[in-house]
Amino acid sequence: MIHKDVLVIGAGPSGLSAAIEAGKAGADTLLVDLNLKAGGQLFKQIHKFFGSSAHHSGTRGYEIGSLLLKQARDAGVEIWLQSTVIGIFPGGKVGIERGLDNGEKDLVTLKAKTIIIATGASENAIRFKGWTTPGVMGAGAAQTMVNVNHVRPGENIVMIGSGNVGLIVSYQLMQAGCNVVALLEAAPKVGGYSVHAAKIRRAGVPIYTSRTIIEALAGEDGSVCGCVTAAVDDHFQPVPGTEETLKCDVITLATGMKPTMDLVKLAGCALKFHGPLGGYVPIHDERLETSVKGVFVAGDSTGVEEANTALDEGKIAGISAAEELGYISHEDADAMRSEIWSRLDSLRLGPFGERRMKEKKAMMEEYSETVKVPAAFQ
Amino acid sequence: MSYIKTGYLEYSELESLQTLPDEKRYQEGPVAVIECVQNIPCNPCEASCKFGAIHIGSPITNLPTIDTRKCIGCGNCIAKCPGMAIFVVNKTKGRGIASVSFPYEYYPVPKVGDKCHAVDRKGEYICDGTVSKVVNPASYDHTPVVTIDIPIEYANEVRSIERGYQP
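^ inputs. structure came back:
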């Protein structure tokens, strides 16, 4: 059986930075990801990132992805791609369906002294009449099509949801040559940063707040040819008589995300519901250790935020795993973590971050009250 | 705060939320106009200004403030702002003409001399304009900064050009 000091599951921003820290500290580190390429969502992010210089601000996401991949290689991290973790068992045994160079798959069982789960988040959908019509897709899918595969999903897009994902993907669809007909937001105000909204407004995209989609219309070929929208009341219910029809061939949904929980559930980590973090999340302490000893979490899988916070959480998890194994002294690990925590705290200030900061702190308090000391994986 | 509903700032709203150059400063030469009004964690504009005219400090969620006495209107901050929220306005070109510089990440990249439709913050046509400068060095990392000449009375409203416009 293969033995590893640290297994990192998920090679997005948090998984990569966790693996880099663990590898740098000298831990024998394996990073696995089910995709063809490492980098998670970073290679879809063609825009310049926000944040501070410590977070590569002003650098485009895909460039950060390339930088992290190089750092991971330099840190001696082993990377398996097209490799899916299919089971986590007591004693740190992990089943992996491993992609091989010849395109075949092999089933591997390995034993990891510590595990860092960084599996990210998945998109929420909303239901409406005709929501399964071809041409209705997640905003993330449309973003993958234009930015990774260089294929336009269609010509005329209606975007649902005004969070940063809806605003940024609208912009990127226009950069790819699509026309964004309108952006609808059921809430009475724009959810994402006003600078992102301003960018698409001056490109001529109308934003309709307090309005949502109630039906996708299909044309003769069975795919989307338009949609019916309606104003919503204070309880998000469509107001009869306010229906309007928009012509479009693609409807993209940017209606929030929730943490991907399959593996933390398998590992038996204690979960708690935290709405502002996207739903159920594995609770963790300030070392990002879950209720299960030696199992750490980082990034969106422990609360949907953004790449900067994921990068920093990944670092903390990587440092803590290396500390757990004695590669970093407790004093050094504490000092490294406290520097990162103060940076994380400043990222979570302001009207957008505060709610998440409060929720994260509440979650860590729950941990210290209910878990106290992580238990061995049963 | 209508921008939270509509997605764009009216100039009067912007004036109440950000420190903008006054008319006297506009008469002295090109100057940056920062249209960033929310406390988001972001600060590359601060480091982008080699004249030290932009300040954010700590915490990183502070709004950027500009010292218009130090700003020379070079426009380096335009391409560095990830929110694409900084513009340079020059009201000293004479003959009733002003120029507005803005980031523009769409194809085709405009060329000097191109006629264009100047649009306001909500993307509506304001006036005709002419592209007078396009700056796109490697350091801007694929964010061309386009400058257009327009009638001076629209200098506080014009913020981009209609995409795909062909005269």
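Chain A has two domains: 1-120+255-368, 124-251. The mean pLDDT of chain A is 96.
thumbs up if we can close this ticket
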